[in-house]
Amino acid sequence: MDFDKIIDRRGTNSSKWDKMEKLFGVSPEDGLAMWTADSDYPTAPCVIDAIKRAADHGVFGYSWEHQDYLNAVCWWMKHRHSWDVDPDWVLTSQGLGNAIALCLDVWSEPGDGVVIFTPVYHEFAAKVGKNDRQVVECPLALNGDRYELDLEDAQSRLTGREKMILWCSPQNPSGRIWTEDELRAVADFAARNDLLLVSDEIHHDLVYQGNSFCPTAMAAPDALPRLVTLTAASKTFNIAGQRTGNMIIPDPKLRAAMRKRLNKLDYAPGMVAVAMITAAYSPEGAAWVDEQIAHLARNKALFDDGINSIPGVSSMPLQATYLAWVDFSGTGMSHDEVTARIRDTARIAVSPGPGFGTGGDGFQRFNLATQGARVEEAVARMKQAFSDLQ
Predict the structure, then answer these.
(1) Is the previous residue joined to 170 through a cis bond, with omega within 30 degrees of 0?
(2) Which end of the chain is more exposed for a tag (fewer CB within 10 A), N or C?
(3) pLDDT digits (tens, 9 = 90+) for 198-238
(4) What is the DSSP letter of 193?
(5) What are the CB-based long-range contacts (under 8 Å, 24+) for 50-56?
(6) What is d(CA 89, CA 203) in angstroms, rounded to the nearest whole number?
(7) What is the pLDDT of residues 298-327, one digit of tens each?
(8) 265 Cβ neighbours under 8 A, 6+ residues apart
(9) How confident is the model at residue 63 (pLDDT cuts 50, 70, 90)?
(10) Are 197 and 226 in contact (CB under 8 A)?
């Protein structure tokens, strides 16, 4: 597949391109969209073929059960992550943002504390706030070019009102893959404090050569009575607009509580989205993902080489995800000055670091899931925007 063919997404109601001027002041006419986490290239051919088959059939009435979908999810987890998942454990949601909101709704009450390890995906704090819960930030320790857990510090921040941890694995925005020992440590921390552990593992398929990802459920099997794992094909296959995710819940009591809430809300997945994901979670889909990772690795190398050549700027080494976490603190510039140069001179829309919570100051997040030519253009623009530092 040609991941480098330019696709014009402007004027298609694309959040990434059509919303960036409103949010960041960068026009899609001359700007580059490198903020929200979706890709600029088409999804896998097997997924597109599934849509065509559905269209050719032409009937889109009520659907039932979706056992093929559940089996495909389990096949994928086994063959890509060596994780044995029972189909009965898998419940669907309207994407992982919805899944996080459901977890907050089912297993906490307004005013309860929710632990997040920052800097982290900005929607964690946003969802907690929207649901009238309290964010409890536990900063990660930045050791050189990687984040590490400081659970002693985290323990000191708890008040006893906390009910849940929202955990991110692989870590967004840094692209860090947690070790099995670290995953067990977080699970033990949850157990000591009687916290539900909700592990968002949406980027688990996007892992670069030389690294390996372990699901939290495999690293810490003792945590299963308090563990909910969130996964989706959305980032892997660029189908986030289908709004379909998985809540994998091995514990029967937890699963029954979530199933009851889903039934109460009369939620069921859409049949076309189910067909797309069933097709994606296949040998053909797996081969496409391998090609995509090779493309992303080339983009990552191109981006890092260019960005790291700017004095005072460094791109954190990525182990997973297509999201580059770039540190501008060495320039001595304020966040506003860095943002202005990226926005006004480079004409790039990026995700500002402070939005990821404590520890995000001095950083900006760049999405590399695009064509190589656009990454090359972004690097050239960034070098020009900071040319006075050369």
Answers:
(1) yes
(2) C
(3) 999 999 999 999 999 999 999 999 999 999 999 999 999 99
(4) T
(5) 50/275, 50/276, 50/278, 50/279, 51/272, 51/275, 51/276, 53/275, 54/271, 54/272, 54/275
(6) 20
(7) 999 999 999 999 999 999 999 999 999 999
(8) none
(9) confident
(10) yes
